[in-house]
Amino acid sequence: MRIVVAPDKFAGTLTAPEAARAIARGWRRSAPGDDLVEAPMADGGPGFADALHSAFGDSSRIEVVTVPGPLGEPTPVGLLLQGETAYLESAQACGLHLVTGERPMDATTVGVGRAIAAAVDGGARRIVVGLGGSATTDGGAGLLAALGATADVPLDAGPAGLDGVSHVDLGAVRDRLAGVELVVAADVETTLLGMFGAARTFGPQKGLTDEQILTVDHRLDQFVQAVCGTTPAERRVADLKGAGAAGGIGFALMVLGAEVTSGIALVAEASGLDELLEGADLVLSGEGAFDYSSRAGKVVHGVATVAMRHAVPCVVLAGRIDVGSREMRALGVESAYSLVDRVGEEAALAEPARHLSDLAARVARSWSA
Question: What is the pLDDT of residues 11-21, one digit of tens each?
Fold first, then answer.
């Protein structure tokens, strides 16, 4: 059999390349004659730059810059450079893993703006920003401040600093980015404001209390008005899909004219997933939690969608599975297997690579011809 191994990261335990290697290693134990191709995937969140670097190979290089993290601490960020294009993973500058829920009202996207500035200063004429996994909900205010935006309140102090904002000047930002193409690679389709906006949807996982969520949503509404204006037509950008990605970084970049694309679609194209699946017998994908959110621009759904175009069955190996068989098949997944169901959560977290390999070996006995 010819099998494509195309997992996402297993958040907090395995990167996508590590997961792909573990799956392939286990599969080969049970089916040594099968031909396996490893193609680690990512959406716009953590692992985005690594997956693209793996796909591009020697035609790209990583340049590390140091920027302020979400709470101001020096943080390294890898700019993936290929020709005049720079790929930036926003989670490296403001990711949730950098703060573990601490001081969510103060978390800022300044570091993402500094990384964009470094890419521009280095000669990049196209910048692709992968969004996802952020600790921030500042609407991208810090990002804009780092690029030269000014306002009547501090833009670099997280949502805590946006109270009462009424005027934002983006003139210096537009001048600095003149002639630079911006692309948003988003892992979600969330809008910025309201019931299904950035604060209400992702605020709890970032440590915001119920009261803070209401406060942040209100301040983001004020921020939109200060940046865009008061009429529905002027404020429309806040209602676009992806505006709420990474706590509103999507909004800030869209205001600057960024094109929006799916992060998984971009990585799949760069990796040649369509070509890899031509003539394949099976594709194996996976992620830490295969749940309802997997539908919204995530890796498993993206891989399954490409697989359906080639009539290739998609099987998922996940840390845990929180979807039923009907929803699974609606996502284009033929079958799914859980590490937690097999060995328990504690063991799965303690030795994820070993147990993922063992699970793959077991699955191979059922699926390998």
Answer: 889 999 999 99
Question: What pTM was computed for the model?
Answer: 0.90
Environment class of 155 (CB within 10 Å of its CB; exposed 0-12, middle 13-18, buried 19+): buried
**Residue with token string 């209390």:** 209
Query: How would you label 6-31 residue by residue, b for 16+ Cβ within 10 Å and e otherwise?
Result: bbbbbbebbbbbbbbbbbbbbbbebb
Q: Is the distance from CB of 140 to CB of 110 less than 8 angstroms?
A: no
Secondary element (H or E) of residue 181: strand 181-186
CA distance 67 to 100: 19
Q: How many CB atoms lie within 10 A of CB 345?
A: 12
C-beta of residue 77 within 8 angstroms of C-beta of residue 98: no
- Tens of pLDDT, residue by residue over 103-152, are 999 999 999 999 999 999 999 999 999 998 999 999 999 999 999 999 99
Q: What tokens appear for 41 in the block?
A: 């995937």
Specify which residues 128 forms β-bridges with.
87, 183
Contacting residues for 89 by C-beta, under 8 A, at least 6 apart: 44, 45, 46, 47, 48, 49, 77, 78, 130
Give the whole-angstrom CA distance, residue 19 versus residue 118: 31
